[in-house]
């Protein structure tokens, strides 16, 4: 049953799996809970890539496509040792910014956020280059930074790819690489593309604008890796394996930083 749900990414509140053509499912984390990813990510991830929560510099994390914020909050707690109730362990400061194009989901994220001082959410469409870059660079400037220490982009690439095409997918990867020192990427496999297109056809809706003309197909995670390494100055540091939905979690780092592989 879990595999079937994963393949469809069903919006179980409306019973209309085509109701979220940009992946902005209302109850996404009810069928893909944060633990599906966090079980693969070590709690020492920040230390492993060279950051310490005990040093004076604030560590900045960006979560792209955060939906209702459940994973953003859980990731913050996972990396800092806080518990979900908001009680803090003795750690340094980490700030996490979650962004999503759906304003209603952002409102839900803000309402249920137990870490309001260190976790924040804003509505933002990362496919709008000028607007998104201006807002994100403004956020970074508040901390005297030009890049996030870590960016998480989990199950977002397919929706950008289907709705905006090959060039937009590569532009997204390049944009995130330019805005982060490390990038944690989960790209949906091609079978998910076929499932998403099939759902729209069953509902009698118009197909995704770019599905039939996409040239980037097959092993999407591998194609993303090739682009990040060849064109974006990044290198694959580690694969954390695959989630229960058979999606790879890949960690990339800026080549110029010359950090040791984990």
Describe the structure.
This protein has helices at residues 2-8, 28-31, 35-38, 45-48, 70-80, 103-111, 129-141, 157-164, 166-178, 190-202, 220-231, and strands spanning 59-64, 94-100, 119-123, 148-154, 180-186, 234-242, 248-254. α8 (157-164) crosses α9 (166-178) and α9 (166-178) crosses α11. By secondary structure, the chain is an alpha/beta fold. The two termini are 35 Å apart. The chain is globular, with a radius of gyration of 18 Å. The protein is built from 11 helices and 7 strands.
Q: How would the global form be characterised?
A: globular
Strand content: 15-25%
Task: Return the average pLDDT rounded to an integer.
Answer: 87
Provide the structure class.
alpha/beta
Proportion of helical residues: 25-40%
The low-confidence runs, each spanning 5 or more residues with pLDDT under 50, are 1-8, 10-15, 85-91
What order do the strands of the largest sheet run in, or round the barrel if closed?
3-2-1-4-5-7-6
Number of strands: 7
Q: What integer value in Å does the Rg equal?
A: 18 Å
Largest sheet: 7 strands, mixed
Give a summary of the structure in a few sentences.
About 35% of the residues lie in helices and about 20% in strands. It has helices at about 1-10, 30, 35-40, 45-50, 70-80, 105-110, 130-140, 155-165, 165-180, 190-200, 220-230, and strands spanning about 60-65, 95-100, 120-125, 150-155, 180-185, 235-240, 250-255.
